[in-house]
Amino acid sequence: MRIRPLLAVLSTALVGALGVTSAASAAPVSPLIIGGSTVSSAPWAAAVLSNGSFTCSGSVIAAQWVLTARHCISGTMSVRIGSVNRTSGGVTRTVSATYTRYDLALMRLSSPVSTSAVSLASSNPPINSTNSIYGWGMTCYSGCSASTQLKTASVRVTSNSVTDAYGGQAIRSTRINGNAWRGDSGGPQFYNGQQVGVASTADGSSIQNYGSVAYNRAWITSVAGV
Predict the structure, then answer these.
(1) How many CA atoms lie within 13 A of 14 on its CB side?
(2) Which of 55, 219, 221, 224 is most deeply buried (CB count within 10 A of its CB)?
(3) Pairing of strands 194-202, 119-120
């Protein structure tokens, strides 16, 4: 089982991934947001850009704050917010400051945005609960680029006692109708309408580990005020 950071670096196509060796020769079973479905509206969604190129997914948690993964932070950061298309629509903002803890990152925007924000959970989701994940990540294990349109999938929680890429508490889940992969890094996991996790690592086949929002809740409040 390969558990890898989910960051993807793109120009017009996928050209590399942070801390990733070459892909396995055998692709996992189909249907391989490998699988899932596209999203028609997500005003809280944030496409995270590094030096102008899409690299990760994220979520708006307040008018001037986006939550993503720590391993997404590199170079000059900016975001596109409020569009399910990572290449157009919505509004763009540069990032004026970043703050990190384990594999979570808070990005302070250069100016506020007028859009709805996600609600953050104060407890982890129950084991065996069905959760939803969102992101613009790759739609196959290898040989394809990130999705242009935001996707979602259903997953089942199997553990709240694993770790993210930097040793923080994480939520592990397995696929129901889709799974996270490169480019989904920083994207949210929801349970009962609240964000419970931030995409950190995955095996590209079934298993994904999302940094726990509840575990980092006090820190998020201390930095972003929410």
Answers:
(1) 24
(2) 55
(3) parallel
Instruction: Take residue 166 and report the two structure tokens written for it.
Output: 């930097």
* Contact criterion met (CB below 8 Å) for 189 and 197: yes
Tens of pLDDT, residue by residue over 30-82, are: 333 899 999 999 999 999 999 999 999 999 999 999 999 999 999 999 999 99
* DSSP secondary structure letter of residue 165: T
pLDDT tens, residue by residue, 125-155: 999 999 999 999 999 999 988 999 999 999 9
Say which amino acid occupies 30: S
Query: Do the Cβ atoms of 148 and 135 come closer than 8 Å?
Result: no
Instruction: Report the C-alpha gap between 123 and 140 in whole angstroms.
Output: 32
The residue whose two tokens read 């397995």 is 174
Q: Which helix (H) or strand (E) holds 223?
A: helix 217-224
Burial class (CB in 10 A: 0-12, 13-18, 19+), 225: exposed
